[in-house]
């Protein structure tokens, strides 16, 4: 799994012109799932995300986690995170999981994030054409790949 995490002061996702999910202070997370992903990726990544200390403390130092600041999460599936651009100019998405594998893992990831946070998160819709808006706070943008933990 690959996650692109952005610390936001607000974020939303629209599908067909209607707001599907919307948050205030927290994280907007783009999630790419590949065929090799499983429950261990879900467990490790969900814990990593909710415990990332990327929010400012009283001195403005990034010492607080999503849990510490009671932040919100907007999770968006994005298979293009697994794009390979090694050959030519047209990206290949061969590593991205097909829907029959990706959808159950995406749904499990949502549950894991909600369990870690102790509250519901906002999401887009798997496979939909989504319009994502955000105000990146900082800016702070972090990429995590579960296949590159070391």
UniProtKB/TrEMBL annotation:
Gene3D superfamilies reported in the protein's UniProt record: D-tyrosyl-tRNA(Tyr) deacylase
Reaction catalysis annotation: glycyl-tRNA(Ala) + H2O = tRNA(Ala) + glycine + H(+); a D-aminoacyl-tRNA + H2O = a tRNA + a D-alpha-amino acid + H(+)
Molecular functions (GO terms): D-aminoacyl-tRNA deacylase activity
Motif Gly-cisPro motif, important for rejection of L-amino acids, residue range(s) on this chain: 138-139
Subcellular location: Cytoplasm
Family: Belongs to the DTD family.
Superkingdom of this protein's organism: Bacteria
Keywords: Cytoplasm, Hydrolase, RNA-binding, tRNA-binding
Transmembrane feature ranges: none
EC number: 3.1.1.96, 3.1.1.-
Function noted in UniProt: An aminoacyl-tRNA editing enzyme that deacylates mischarged D-aminoacyl-tRNAs. Also deacylates mischarged glycyl-tRNA(Ala), protecting cells against glycine mischarging by AlaRS. Acts via tRNA-based rather than protein-based catalysis; rejects L-amino acids rather than detecting D-amino acids in the active site. By recycling D-aminoacyl-tRNA to D-amino acids and free tRNA molecules, this enzyme counteracts the toxicity associated with the formation of D-aminoacyl-tRNA entities in vivo and helps enforce protein L-homochirality.
Domain-level remarks: A Gly-cisPro motif from one monomer fits into the active site of the other monomer to allow specific chiral rejection of L-amino acids.
Protein name: D-aminoacyl-tRNA deacylase
Species of provenance: Echinicola jeungdonensis
Heme in keyword set: no
Quaternary structure, from the entry: Homodimer.
């Amino acid at each position: 799994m690959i996650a692109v995490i952005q610390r936001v002061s607000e974020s939303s996702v629209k599908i067909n012109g209607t707001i599907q999910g919307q948050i205030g202070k927290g994280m907007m997370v783009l999630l790419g799932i590949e065929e090799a992903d499983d429950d261990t990726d879900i467990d490790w990544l969900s814990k990593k995300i909710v415990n990332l200390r990327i929010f400012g403390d009283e001195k403005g130092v990034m010492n607080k986690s999503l849990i510490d600041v009671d932040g919100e999460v907007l999770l968006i599936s994005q298979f293009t995170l697994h794009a390979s651009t090694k050959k030519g100019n047209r990206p290949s998405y061969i590593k991205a999981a097909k829907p029959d594998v990706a959808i159950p893992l995406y749904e499990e990831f949502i549950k894991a994030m909600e369990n870690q946070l102790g509250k519901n998160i906002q999401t887009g819709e798997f496979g939909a054409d989504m319009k994502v808006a955000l105000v990146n706070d900082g800016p702070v943008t972090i990429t995590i790949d579960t296949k590159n933990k070391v």
